[in-house]
Amino acid sequence: MIWFTTVGLLGLLALSLPVGIVLFLLSVGLDVFFSPFPLMRGLGQVVWSSSNSATLIAIPFFVLLGEVLVRSNVAQRTYAALNTWVSWLPGGLTHANIATATMFSATSGSSVATAATVATVAMPQAEKLGYDQRLFSGAIAAGGTLGIMIPPSINLIVYGFLTETSIPQLFLAGLLPGLLLALLFMAVTVLICMIRPELGGPTARSTWGEKLASLKDLVPIFGLFLVVVGSIYAGLATPTEAAAVGVGIAFLIAGMQRALSLSMLREALLGTIRTTAMIMLVVIGAYVLNFVLTAAGVSRALTNLLNGLGFEALGMLLVIVLIYIVLGFFIETLSLMVATIPIVVPIIEQLGYDKVWFGILMILLVEMALITPPVGLNLYVVHSARRGGSFSDVMVGAIPYVLAMLVMAGALIAVPQIALLLPSIL
């Protein structure tokens, strides 16, 4: 059963079938060949119960929030404002890439959208000022990965729904690791540019007057983050309610930027529909696969297989981490999550690890899949925003940031309180 599941999953994905369809086909195959009961007769009930949840309504709201901000020229103003604060560091504008990605991660919830937004704004600046294309592009791709770590995060909502884990607790757990990872990215950039100054491009110092004047362009994003995430942490709103309020504020910001129009609204809604439909197909397919895996005994068989290796809890955890790193080379992020959660999370619970903590570790490992070839979506997004150059430039530029993620993963395993500190005190 285990080999059928693994080979079936990778084989169907290799055919470039939609991930949601792959999960349904794999479920049917497991039912036909391994289940003693006709599980597909309960398909309707499983699909309905998996999609009939108020929690999932937060997904289209957060997607729409990001779509409105992307199309309202907020990115250009945010990038210029952060440039006045961080471009004095070795690496110059490269730090503005990471800082802007961090800011947008705190509102959009999507890594690909974050990378696309920052790349569109930043790449013309890099070409004009003569920055090293590899490091500059790699920083944008890596910064974009923060979109699924720093709350609000669509991937954390999906993880919380599939594992029945508190989403506010996951949001709290992801905040500190996400910010630390952003600082680690900046530290890596400083180190590289101190060793090889020619890679960093020109730095720029701004007066305190210019820095204070730029705050007016950062206030809308800060305010949106405080309202959306703060209302959840304060217990004033559920994630779904906070997302709905956030959409209203995003439209207000777009109106203030004179970017609100019928064409912009149409594009934002169409983008939201496409993204939400894709996510929901994958989520429902994962729920069906989870049902079939449990009923057919695959999860139990895999647990027995890992137990048979004779590893202690830490050894088994490191095996799981290694599996995620390898699969991340071939499987897209959300697909990797939903395909493995039904199998891995029960094992993690049996080992005695906290589900909230593992959710953050999983998100970090999944983030790596966004910037590791051949399937790293952020690499392709950033490359598409460039004028010329090879795809290998973006891949090489992302390597230092992949190593930074590995360091962060080791820190999370060694010090779980990095993720659990805020949930334990708030």
Strand-and-helix sequence, N→C?
Answer: HHHHHHHHHHHHHHHHHHHH
**Which structural category fits the helices and strands?**
mainly alpha
The termini sit apart by 43 Å
The tally of helices reads: 20
Kindly report the average pLDDT value.
82
Tally of individual domains = 1
Categorize the overall geometry.
globular
Q: Detail the poorly predicted runs.
A: none
- Strand content range: under 5%
The major beta sheet can be summarized as: none
Helix content: over 70%
Rounded to the nearest angstrom, the radius of gyration is 22 Å
- How many strand segments? 0
Mind explaining what this structure looks like?
The protein has 426 residues and is an all-alpha fold. It has one domain (2-425). 77% of the residues lie in helices and 0% in strands. It contains 20 helices and no strands. It has helices at 2-14, 19-34, 43-51, 58-70, 74-86, 93-108, 111-129, 133-144, 154-163, 167-195, 208-233, 239-256, 262-296, 298-308, 313-327, 333-351, 355-369, 377-384, 391-414, 417-425. Helix 10 packs across helix 17 (355-369) and helix 17 runs antiparallel to helix 19. The protein is globular and about 70 Å long. The protein starts with a helix and ends with a helix. The mean pLDDT is 82. The chain crosses the membrane at residues 12-34, 46-65, 135-158, 170-195, 215-236, 242-265, 277-296, 316-344, 356-381, 401-422. Keywords: Cell inner membrane, Cell membrane, Membrane, Transmembrane, Transmembrane helix, Transport. It is a multi-pass membrane protein.
